Predict the structure.
Amino acid sequence: MLDTAPGAPGIDARWTSSAKNGIGTALSKHSRVWFTLSHGVLNEIYYPRVDSACTRDFGFVVTGQDGYFSEEKRDCVTQTKTSAPGIPAFSITNTARDGSYIIEKQIVSDPGRASVLQHIRFTALKGDIADYTVTALLAPHLVNAGQLNSAWIGEFEDRPVFFATGRSRYLALICDIPWRAKSAGFVGVSDGWRQLKEHGRLAHQYQRADDGNVALAGELDFTSDRQEATLAIGFGQTEFEAAAAAAESLKNGFEGARQHYVANWQAWQEKLLPLDRKDRNGVNTYRVSTAVLASHRAADRPGAVVASLSIPWGFSKGDDDLGGYHLVWPRDLVETAGGFLAAGDAHEAIAILDYLRLVQQPSGRWPQNLWLDGKPYWPGIQMDECAFPVLLADMLRRFGHLDAKALRRFMPMLRSAANYIITNGPATCEDRWEEDAGYSPFTLAVEISALLAAADLLSLEGDDVASNHLRETADCWNEQIETWTFAGDENFCASVGVSGHYVRIAPIGVSDEVSASGKIEIRNQTPDRALLPAADVLSPDALALVRFGLRAPDDPHILDTIKAIDHSLRAELPQGPLWYRYTGDGYGEHEDGAPFDRTGQGRPWPLLAGERAHYELAAGRREAAEALLATLEKSAGSGGLLPEQVWDGRDLPEKELFLGRPSGSAMPLVWAHSEHIKLLRSLKDGTVFDMPPQGVERYIKNKTGSGLRIWRFNNRLSSIPLGKTLRIETEAKALVHWSTDNWATVSDAPMAPSGLSTYYVDLPLGHATEETTVVFTFYWPDAGHWENTNFAVRVINESNASNTR
């Protein structure tokens, strides 16, 4: 064996396909590993946390006489099955397309320790087993990085071991049969794949490859009498800890680990509600979805669930552009809690709420996304993510899972979140698609519903002052939803036969009424396509106004918007209709199938079929909802996993893109599986499972309006309608010095506490009978000074002028 492999540091590291057809974990605190499958091989294995990918892939290459070379992930027909519905213990059969061999695998992780076990059997279909060489190839990418890894051949308890390390984590690969050859190398130069391609064998065996993009290769000693092997990949914080985990798993045997693994899953599945349903291929889609949710949970941080064990278009991404979804998004997390609750696992939903309590920031908001330990990853502020946890707490209370004592622990979190919403809403810095700032119908729906829910929760504590203030704010915002977000190009609306439609988002600073001259930026498009009139950009997001109980399904504005959405954003696919996120979306592959590279072309989202199905159910059209459920399920990959997007172009077999099938985006998307479970529960119950009742009662049944318009320093109204009271709200106590006759006469109005962290005063302009202008300034008693700036708000007759900012 040679000392050191040449070619450091190797080619640039890349991840692998996001098109998973299997994910699994042992549901054990003793086994902090998660694995994914794609193209018949192991892909990313995560350790010691579900947010830390440690491998790229682990598969086999078969070589033979006359230059024969066959790689199972590229040159085989793959069939992957689970041992039972909803239990992700996998059996894989990879049959060479040329009919030369079969590789049969069984894969589980060991519930007793941090290791993944793979039992394989190699069968020669042409010739004899002696005619072939089977080589295992393992690509370490320890702790979310492929560069600066080291790999070497070592020993543990007199047994050869393949080691790798990076960022203070270690892996060890051990086999229960001998190796004929072993090597560590640099990818693209001296790695095993290149040697096999050039020589048909490991012609050069290197002991070490340090500080680069490395790979390990080992030729298995298969014979006619020995056609099976078990391989264990162990993980640890030292090389010996990793090797000990792998060695102990082999000592205890594959079958014992498999039985323990299956028993853990059976015990969890038995606690769930029986919402079982099989698709056209006999896959129990409900059990797949529940397994997806459970497989994305952290083992050592209760309540933390990542968005997806995948990296969209991973084969095009390296260390400098991870782009992985193995992070926690508060929005996705609350949606996932709803999925657990719909399936009957209230314990997990409560754990999620408690996790959100622990990672809430002092301001009252949550990070855009975060690592398991609470460290923010992206810095954006999304107001729906600040509101969703409030809705989760209220839903748990309404379903009887949080009594007064249990709820008390969450009240500081809920009060802080409600305060953040009223002081920073209703506009958002980013919409739910994490791109644009402004007035979003989806965000508004979540914010307003959360304010009403928070009001109910604070009422339980006897805080009627804060509760009333939250309800009045909600009423004020709700009354202005159409003013802020209902518009439409005149020619487009005439062609579709509608009066207008809710826009995707109305930009901040244009006006309270959406202006056709206002532009929004499409942030995933090329510069020539990046700016569109706000009134031209539609989105199915407006359906949230029904989902969260603020508008009736037959509201004329909703019906017009659905016509417009279906005209512009509906895609007819073999499985049925799906919808695009919004007009001009660029998040998806390019037209030629090239991966998304910060620009592209948006593709249909199966998730949106689930949201539309919930709307149809709310509208009393159960058959339409059931048809969309079938469409959602038919959009899944071969293993029943739901993708983020599906391909809507012509078939491109060379890029594995087929009409109506999963694209290269994230798969599985936990959010989509949560929506699937909630839809199953909604259809069982005959009503939308997660619709908050407060808005339905207040706005649909009782038609509650608002006599207020609210001025804040971050919401400086320039006008209010005649007949409305002007509420001035600040985050510090003040005296409001004001006049309606240009300071000829003045009044002083002290501010009162809102019950939260704000102060307010209502100027009695609601009694005004004619248009006027109120001017005002502030005296800050705690600081002992005047604001020294005058502010003005016009009181206008809306029949004569639009309500502008």
About this structure: The chain has a mean pLDDT of 95. The longest helix spans residues 441-460. The chain has 20 helices and 34 strands. The two ends are 76 Å apart (CA to CA).
